[in-house]
Amino acid sequence: MKQLLSGNEAIALGAYHAGVAVATAYPGTPSTEILQSIARLDGVYAEWAINEKVALEIGIGAAYAGVRALVSMKHVGLNVAADPLFAASTTGIVGGLVIVSCDDPGEHSSQGEQDNRHFAKFAKVPMLEPTDSQEAYELMEWAFNISEQFDTPVLVRSTTRISHCKTVVDVNRDRKADLNEPSFTRSPAKFVMVPSNARIRRQAMEERIIKLRSYVDDFPLNEMLLADRKLGVISNGVAYQYALEVFRDASHLKLVTIHPIPEQLIRRFANEVEKLIVVEELDPYIEDEIRRLGIPVMGKEFVPIIGELNPEILENAAIEAGILPTPSDPAPHQTPPSPQLPTRRPQLCAGCPHVGTEFVLRKLGFLTPSSTKGLKKGEFIVTSDIGCYTLGVYPPLSALDTCACMGASIGQALGLEKAGVPNKAVAVLGDSTFMHSGITGLIDIVYSQGNTTVIILDNSTTAMTGQQGQPGTGVSVTGTQAQPVKLEKLAEGIGIKDVNVVDAFNLREIENTLKRSIENDEPSVIISRGVCILSSKTRGTPFVIDEDECIGCFDCLDIGCPAITISDEQACIDPALCVGAACGVCAQVCPQEAIVEGRG
Amino acid sequence: MNDVNVLMVGVGGHGVILASDGMSEIGMNNGYDVKKTDSLGMAQRGGSVVSHVRWGKHVFSPMIKKGEVDYLLGFEQLEAARWASYLKPNGVAIVADVVVIPISAIDGKIPYPDWKEVKGILAQYTDQIYLIPATRIAEEVENPRAVNMAMLGFLSAFLELEPQAWTETMRHRLPAKFMESSIEAFTKGASEAKSMIPAKGN
Lengths: 600, 202
Description:
The complex is a heterodimer of chains A (600) and B (202).
Chain A: E1 2-6, H1 7-17, E2 20-25, H2 32-39, E3 45-48, H3 52-64, E4 68-74, H4 75-80, H5 82-91, E5 97-103, H6 117-123, E6 127-128, H7 133-150, E7 154-159, H8 160-163, E8 165-170, H9 188-191, H10 195-217, E9 223-225, E10 228-235, H11 237-246, E11 250-254, E12 257-259, H12 263-272, E13 275-279, H13 285-292, H14 311-320, H15 354-365, E14 381-383, H16 408-419, E15 425-430, H17 431-447, E16 453-458, H18 487-493, E17 498-503, H19 507-519, E18 524-529, E19 543-545, E20 564-567, E21 570-573, H20 585-589, E22 595-597
Parallel strand pairs in A: 2-3, 2-4, 4-5, 5-7, 6-7, 10-11, 10-13, 14-15, 15-16, 16-18, 17-18
Antiparallel strand pairs in A: 1-8, 6-12, 9-11, 19-22, 20-21
Chain B: E1 4-11, H1 16-29, E2 33-39, E3 48-56, E4 69-74, H2 77-82, E5 87-96, H3 103-107, H4 115-123, E6 128-132, H5 134-140, H6 147-156, H7 163-173, H8 176-196
Parallel strand pairs in B: 1-4, 4-5, 5-6
Antiparallel strand pairs in B: 1-3, 2-3
């Protein structure tokens, strides 16, 4: 049956048909839909884990029990899960363990760009990479089989353009019937990595890669298409599709086995063609592997190393490098100059509970224009984190000083404080990010006798990736309800005495609490609580601006609400977007009290 | 079976993704190879949304090359202007009468372009420019979310598939509550196109 599936849906369905029994993940673009798709299918235990490290450890446990396990995450998630990845590579598995890493070339929705193909070589595990959804679907069965045959976790790499691109898939299988019964067999030599055992496993890891090297040479999805022998193109992932489109007459070699690479196959292909090039996104991974074989090859001399490729980037690069001929007919029309158009930045939603806290942070902490060097007395540093609230870096809120990686806001604030910076540092992070990796930082503040103020923006969801549950809500990926972990109890339990819960839509309450917490000589936690407007059903009557009272100061624009705009020199509120008293932040900012509830 | 390259552009929440999903499925159900890809990133927070839809005998790249878009569907006027350069020479620009002023045009130095300016930018690439009363159609069918269906209806008038081929997939896919109003918007969009497209040979 033909279905139009995204790469992520195809990975999920492929894993399901391969008999996966346990699937775990932490949400992260572009990987999130893998677990969401699998959670809709019967017979699989699916869960959002608290972070990627725990997700992989759950997967390892399931694989030790002899069943097939799938763990998915975004590229930076594998940084978090690197420790168990290396551990699982050392012990090997029993049931198949497949880890999907979705890279984000071009940083569509990420804080950084990295090429996770290096992880496969680094951790000495095989890696497979599909070139469309059909291949993603088929590859999962192969991945689980390789995992079990070679006693190793298997990495499957995807990228944004594979994960989020929909292509036609011939769904030609059903779910595997003869699934392993879960059971655990004691085997300390395999599972208990004391040095004496680990040294023996270390041998096994090297023997495994040698066996895999010969295995991948006959791997059927690595495909050689011989046409014009003047040019041979080796490519992988979505870059293969671009290569087919741009180098239409050339010979092509598609690589699906990324680690190890099929050395004999590459040698055969290289012997067939006059000139060999590699087309790959990000790092010269395949190119370096080919050079290691002593085969002359061109790659990053002309293909960009940064960002996503697309057919026009590749074509232009190839023309410039003389690989493709310069088009003989001049462009049918002169390329007009790009018009000057206003940009459309992402912004926080109308009714977003983060706006009030970030507005107060801006007001109290940023007293001078941000261009001036050095902070004035009384200003404070706002270390921030990964989530919707990071959009508060943009004007008009402009309320953040840092954003690095999940949970980093807390350690950074403590580090600034311990370094002796005279200005106070305030850490700001969301509830899901706090659960992911903020808890350990907060414990460190208690242990190291820090004086840091930590604001947890508790919108009771994982908003940026599409409202997933997390331990603070207790809602699972399948919708079941567990006992929620209470942030205030948790903070108190680890020894924070100054724990405050404020209403995220009450500016005065936030301001007074923040002033007090910054001034006192102990660590403080402020939980700014307000449900994400995308998951909340509560909507008030939209507010209106009383034009008789409005003096045109435009202070209401300082909160950056998408519902507030200007029409004919007059601020006005879009009733289609405004959620009224469910938010009410603009009315608190207006010095004239000119923003009032509409008549409904 | 002709190759069809459609670029749908707009802002989050206007049904661009639903429209491109729908069009992709319709293509697949009628025998085309199909690829579609969206660039949205953090667009659900008010940024631009771009969706590439490709029908063909065999489609390689999911992304359409600049200068090779047959049909540019602008669900919002500024976004249509922004993506004009993707049109092939004399491709077709179909733009909804929808304006969403970004915050940068409110507090910044570059104002929001009016329709005359948007049309001028599009006219650098094509003279086939259609401003569609999609909002009026959505109001007429009493479904404010049907703007995207009116746009698909208009587009369908240019393509080789019969209207039934479109509506049949829609009947399988759309929730019952919006089914009739959506199909009505589609039909109105298609007949709007028939009255606006100059007859061939004239």
